[in-house]
Amino acid sequence: MAIDLSDVRDQELVTRIRGGDEEAFRGLFRRYAPNAMALARRVVRQPSLAEEIVQEAFLALWRNPTGYDQERGTVRSWLLGTVHHRAVDAVRREESQRRRAEGAVSVDVAQPDISEEVAAELDAPEERRAVRKALDELPAEQRQVIELMYFDGLSQSAIAGRLSLPLGTVKSRSLLGMRRLRAALVEMER
Amino acid sequence: MMERRDHQGIEELLSASVLGALEPEEQAALEQEMSSHGPRCPECMELRRDYGEVAGRLAFALEPVAVRRGLEDQVVQLARGARTAEVVQIPARRNRSRVWRGLVAVAAAFVLFAGGWLARDLSGGNNATVTLPSKVVSFQGTGGNLSVAYDPGTRGVYLLGSDLAAPPSGKVYEVWKIEGGTPVRGACFRPKANGSFFRFLDTDISTTQVMAVTVEPATCSSAPTSEPFLTATITQA
Questions:
Q1: CB-based contact A175 B52, cutoff 8 Å
Q2: Which burial class, exposed, middle or buried, applies to B94 when counting CB atoms under 10 A from its CB (0-12, 13-18, 19+)?
Q3: Do B188 and A93 touch (CB under 8 A)?
């Protein structure tokens, strides 16, 4: 398995954070806060709420750095997973209010298709290009379901209702798409 | 063969769970199924690690967003404050309320003396300092200690709690801003197991007269469904 040098550095920072090292905490914040903010904003679509979510996620790391378990994956995935989890919780709590207020998130409304931005981002970092390429190579119906789940915070049941599809169809598209992403993003790098 | 079927079920649920796409009952079914395999099931661990990695990396599909200038310092300040708040929990339970009141009193003395808070980090032997807002108001009522700290005219408040009772099963606490007699949602929270609570709310209280806390369903409420059990009068002077 290839050694992920970036994650080695991240794990070192987490080890130092466990010892109360504020500079290590700042280091991890500088490295991932922009990605965390992008994710939180995409899911909740409210800059101030997104900022609160990012802030809380990093504070949770500071308060309980032992919550990170190396066996469960990389620091970046754990951290961004925490941000995503908090953002989805927030969007579900405020779903009806927010959508009424902003008229956002409807499959009938043109949403920015992340995969379509690949061509415009030729100088994007390798990581971003790899993830976008993996998404781009998914069949459109699988990509749609995964993007609605991840970036819009919708449950499989909600997607079935929104797309007027049987729940089983949504589940199978989700599983097939995630298996492809796993193969492209995780297994290929071993 | 049976083993494979079992892991396929886990894979179906887990791959959706990492995307936050399961309903609560499906999430419970996943946790039950995984627990039946034991905490060291190699296939379960591999599935969880791999799909967790996929979910984390999906975030990198997005263009990074520059964080607001000052946010890093703000988070670090809150982190220091969190450590300070946790120090309040160290004494034996019978002393906690007294320590908490003492902390507020000490801070209030600094307000009188210096016109602002510059409270030394209470972790002991540490030279780090934390600058806190100029006003602190204790909530009145039963069920624990809660204070709100803020700078009049400046957006954002800090909520600090200790010895807070756990909300009833299936319930959360919800903070409200009362403005012109109308409750405006603040935030939902559960105290930690030791009764402590610390959070920064990015909210404007310039027109808030009172802040209140009620018990609400776990999904949170858009309007209070119970009487406040903690209230604090907010002044801007």
A1: no
A2: exposed
A3: yes
Written as six digits, the tokens of B141 are 């009522």
Expressed in angstroms, the distance from the first to the final Cα of chain A is: 4
Please report which confidence band the pLDDT of residue B89 belongs to, taking 50, 70 and 90 as the band edges: very low
Question: Are the Cβ atoms of A174 and B15 closer than 8 angstroms?
Answer: yes
Could you give the CA distance from residue B167 to residue A126 in angstroms, rounded to a whole number? 47
**Is the predicted pLDDT of residue A96 greater than 60, yes or no?**
no
Residue A22, C-beta contacts closer than 8 angstroms, at least 6 positions apart: B76, B79, B80, B128
Closest CA of chain A from B127, distance in Å: 13
Give B11's contacts in chain A (Cβ within 8 Å).
175
Q: Which of B52, B67, B220 faces A72 most closely, judged by CB atoms?
A: B52
Tens-digit pLDDT profile for residues A44-91: 988 888 988 898 899 888 888 888 887 778 899 999 999 999 999 888
Is-contact B221 A96, C-beta < 8 A? Answer: no
What phi, psi does B172 have (nearest 5°)? -135, 170
B203 or B100: which carries more pLDDT confidence?
B203
Contact B67 A135 (CB under 8 A): no
Closest residue of B to A28, CA-based? Answer: B72
* pLDDT exceeds 90 at position B94: no
pTM, 2 dp: 0.60
**Contacts across the A-B interface (CB distance below 8 Å):** 175
Nearest Cα residue to B162 out of B81, B218, B230, B86:
B86
Q: Could you give the residue ranges of the DSSP H alpha helices within A104-166?
A: 126-136, 140-150, 156-163
What does the alpha-carbon distance between residue B6 and residue A121 come to, in Å, rounded to a whole number? 42
Query: Would you call A93 and B219 a contact, using CB atoms and an 8 Å cutoff?
Result: yes
